[in-house]
Amino acid sequence: MRIPDLALHRPGSLDEAFEATAAHPDHDLLGGGTDLLCNYKWRLNVRPHVISLRHLPELQGEAAGPLAAGRTLHELEHCPVLAQLCPELSRAAAQIATPLIRRTATLGGNLHLDTRCWHFNQTAEWRLAHDSCLKAEADQCRVQPVPGDVCVATYSGDLAPVLMAYGAEAVLVGPDGERRVPLSEYYALDGIRRFAERKPGELMLRLDLPQDAGDWTVRYQKLRLRETFDFPEGGVAVGVRWADQPGGEIAEARVASTAYDSVPRVHPDLAERLVGRQIQEDVAEELGASLREEVRPMKNTSMSPAYRKKMARVLAKRALLACLPSS
Amino acid sequence: MSFSRRILRLHVNGQPREVLARDADTLLDVLREEVELTGTKRGCDLGTCGCCTVQIDGEPVLSCLTLAAEVEGKQITTVEGLRDGERFAPLQEAWAEAGASQCGFCTPGFLLAADRLLRDNASPSRDEIREALAGNLCRCTGYVKIIDAVERCAAEHRTFCAERGRPSTVSEQV
Fold first, then answer.
1. Is the peptide bond before A264 cis (omega within 30 degrees of 0)?
2. Fold of A1-56
3. Rounded to two decimals, what is the model's pTM?
4. Which of A141, A233, A250, B39 is the S-S candidate for B79 at Cβ 3.0 to 4.6 Å?
5. What is the CATH number of domain A60-123+152-327?
6. Average pLDDT over every residue of B42-63
7. Nearest-by-Cβ selection for B26 from A3, A6, A52
8. Which residues are registered as beta bridge partners of B53?
9. How far away is chain A from the Cα of B60, in angstroms, using its nearest Cα?
10. Is pLDDT at B173 greater than 90 in this prediction?
11. Angle between helical axes of B144-164 and B107-120 (0-180°, round to 10)
């Protein structure tokens, strides 16, 4: 499969990148390209200009920081700083796709992963035969035909819920300078628009963790058919900060999910119910049952929505129990 | 809007190569059709099968998902670059001895991924080999003989190095 013609721009500085994005509004940003180039081969929303972020020193290399957006998933997996600071992020990175893809795919790319759908991630011929989908050539969603004007494609990144459980902030940079946005507020509940907080021309520079990130215990559970290759069919991250001793009373909690919606989501009400309690089987069961009630998977991935919904209970329960020091 | 081709200066298997390519051409397109090194295979073309694996500056990379223009100036190694002159590399010999190839279509990708593993880890366990090769698919032989071949090569290399008092991995050499 040949990628359709496009013009590749390779800025070597942030200023050059801003110039390129301003000069070519109809562009895509290229991180590792392991998702974008697959979509291009299937003629999915190909843009005439692609701006590579791989030559910006602010985004890669050790000097850019452990959570620079251009770091590869392989680097996240093997980074000694992250192993100390947020070990579950390294473990989650190690569960993404395959070792070969992780050599190229980036943190920023995973956070900006295009939403996926059974009716979207198909060849051009398949889409043509099936009247395509709202996110590609058609004007109505085939998963949820009524009202049909909102894309319900599934967000399938693994790192966003883990970073949300650590309380991460996205650092964005544009011609007007840097600004910070809590990652939990970065996304928009629309599989096409996708981002609530990204302005045209802005780039994600890095993720910053709060000062107390090291005090949090975070665990992530992922549902998939194979232990390699597959995107999550469901994913739950649970983070707890202990009031006193690890395994004792919970002082603060965060719960986040992925692959259940067009966005990775935090569940503040569920997290609040954990505060002041100790992790026990019944508490974990209660969390799982509540999350199962909250998630609304669509019929747009390989596994059935009913199964994915049932597994939300299991994943949440496992994630919370795994926070115990004895697990 | 018109899209022109441009000259790319690549370093393939230690040799400088100039090729004419579109910005949209992948490294796989260029290696097979411009450089005419067809050892690198086009399988799924979507990063799933690992048949197109090459090494960029020593790291295994999927050439089907790498734009050729992005690797100008970097050292590209294909399966043709593994051998030493007329001699096959020890890993290739081990592959043949273990019977790890049947149709052979996946073999170049496996070799490049396994080569990287052995440069880091002279004594990989079978689980470590499985993990390192988890992005490469074989649809005919199965994986037992492939893992056998990597183990065999690692053992022979360790013996070779021990007899000469040399370190057996790149990491040890550094």
1. no
2. 3.30.43
3. 0.95
4. B39
5. 3.30.390.50
6. 96
7. A3
8. B62
9. 7
10. no
11. 40
Name the residue facing A33 among B59, B65, B133 (closest C-beta). Answer: B65
What is the distance between the alpha carbons of residues A155 and A3, in angstroms, rounded to a whole number?
24
- Taking the C-alpha atoms of residue A240 and residue A255, their distance in angstroms, rounded to an integer, is 9
How many angstroms separate the CA atoms of A282 and A63, rounded? Answer: 46
B72-127 pLDDT, tens digit each: 999 999 999 998 888 899 999 999 999 999 999 999 999 999 999 999 999 999 99
Residues from B in contact with A at Cβ < 8 Å: 1, 3, 22-26, 29, 45-48, 50, 53, 59-62, 65-67, 69-70, 113, 131-136
Which domains does chain B carry? 6-81 (3.10.20.30), 90-173 (1.10.150.120)
Q: Does A50 touch chain B (CB under 8 A)?
A: yes
On the question of a common fold for A1-56 and A60-123+152-327, the answer reads: no
Taken in order A194, A199, A205, A210, is the CA torsion positive or negative? negative
- C-alpha A18/C-alpha A201 separation (Å) is 6
Spell out which residues of chain B touch residue A77, defining contact as CB-CB under 8 Å.
none
Shortest distance, CA B74 to any CA of chain A (angstroms):
13
> Would you place residue B162 in the very low, low, confident or very high pLDDT band (cuts 50, 70, 90)?
confident
Cβ pair B65:A6 closer than 8 A = no
Length of chain A equals 327
